[in-house]
Specification:
about 350 residues, alpha/beta, two-stranded antiparallel sheet, about 15% strand, binds S-adenosylmethionine
């Protein structure tokens, strides 16, 4: 085998960066759990002793964590004052839950991928699935926090207005189903924006529905938001004006069956909104940083989830518009278009 030393060096350089990122994932989790990013963003520049005191932690550990964060480029270090700080952009991504680029909750999802790895390794051999109900607890709230950033800043502002005539219906009072709703982040955001409408969240995972109900009670939205344990093929078919699937159709075993149920459950002029991870149609066009992130999550989470269910179509998180259009078409939803997109999401509209 001819080894090109320059290519080898370049590849080893890439691996060093990737190993550092992978090791740092657990430090992101620590920074989030212990409130280290938030404290540093609010009160920095700080020495390690000051951050340790402010967060009730131990200086020696904090000094090591801060050093790793500075080496990662996640925070800044001033050698003259021996203080650490965060630039506004770093704080937006890691410390500010309300910012449009907050990613600070991702540690829980990465943790879940590692915790559940033995189950997924087993599934690779047996060909069986790993259902959402067999996942580690941290996956559920990690997912809710990860997706919340995009939903909070795009759903009401851009995605719903991109659908044909839907906002008018929501304003005057519509009936909405949020299928595979998880903790109901999207359901509550819509309910807050459209008080005259009624929202019904369904998910087959009991724990997620309990969490969704609890969060909704706390948000004071229980008058217009209801959650029930149901699969995408069993929720009551009650003439919804809008049926939404947020980042979940590809997790389902039988997405065609789910879309057939949409057809039966929609009002005569109803709309189905599919929010799916951004993807191009061909593998070679997804070989980029966003595709990398989604293919990895899909390998560990989405594909095993789908294979666990009946049919087990396993669309994967990089299904792409053409494949999703085909699913909708097979279910008899023939009007299908890309309503809008972000770098991370495709927003697709399907109608009968
Ligand atoms: C990636 S999570 C997305 C959750 C939520 N929509 C969000 O955006 O935060 C996928 C969700 O789909 C749900 N799910 C998977 N298969 C389902 C099915 N066949 N019927 C109903 N829900 C399902 C899971 O329980 C999980 O809550």
């Amino acid at each position: 085998m001819d080894v090109n030393p320059d290519r080898l060096n370049a590849f080893m350089g890439k691996m060093v960066v990737d190993v550092g990122s992978a090791m740092n994932a657990s430090l992101i989790l620590l920074g989030d759990k212990l409130g280290l990013y938030k404290e540093l963003a609010a009160k920095g520049p700080m020495t390690s002793a000051e951050l340790a005191k402010a967060t009730g932690t131990t200086e020696r550990y904090i000094r090591e964590w801060l050093s790793a964060q500075a080496a990662s480029g996640y925070i800044e270090y001033d050698a003259e004052t021996n203080k650490f700080s965060m630039q506004p952009e770093q704080a937006m991504a890691l410390a500010d839950e309300e910012s449009p680029v907050f990613l600070g909750g991702i540690g829980d999802v990465i943790w879940a991928a590692f915790l559940d790895e033995p189950k997924v390794a087993d599934a690779f051999k047996t060909g069986k699935g790993v259902g959402w109900n067999r996942r580690s607890e941290c996956l559920f709230c990690g997912t809710a926090r990860f997706f919340r950033t995009g939903y909070k800043h795009h759903l009401v502002q851009e995605w719903l207005p991109a659908l044909d005539g839907v906002v008018e219906k929501l304003k005057s009072g519509a009936k909405v189903a949020d299928v595979g709703c998880g903790h109901g982040v999207s359901t509550r955001l819509m309910a807050e924006a459209f008080p005259k409408s009624r929202f019904y969240g369904f998910d087959y995972h009991e724990g997620s529905i309990e969490a969704a109900r609890d969060l909704t009670r706390k948000a004071g939205l229980s008058d217009r938001v209801h959650f029930d344990v149901h699969s995408a093929k069993t929720y009551p078919a009650e003439g919804y004006d809008l049926i939404c699937f947020f980042d979940c159709l590809h997790d389902m075993g039988d997405p065609v069956g789910a879309m057939k149920h949409v057809r039966e459950s929609m009002a005569a002029d109803g709309t189905c909104m599919l929010v799916e991870p951004f993807a191009n149609d061909r593998l070679e066009d997804n070989l980029n940083p966003v595709g990398r992130m989604f293919y990895a999550a899909s390998t560990m989470i989405c594909t095993p989830a789908s294979i666990d269910q009946e049919v087990g179509l396993a669309l994967g998180a990089q299904a792409g518009e053409a494949r999703l259009r085909e699913v909708a078409k097979q279910a008899g939803l023939t009007r299908f278009r890309r309503a809008t997109e972000t770098p991370f999401n495709l927003i697709l509209e399907a109608r009968a």
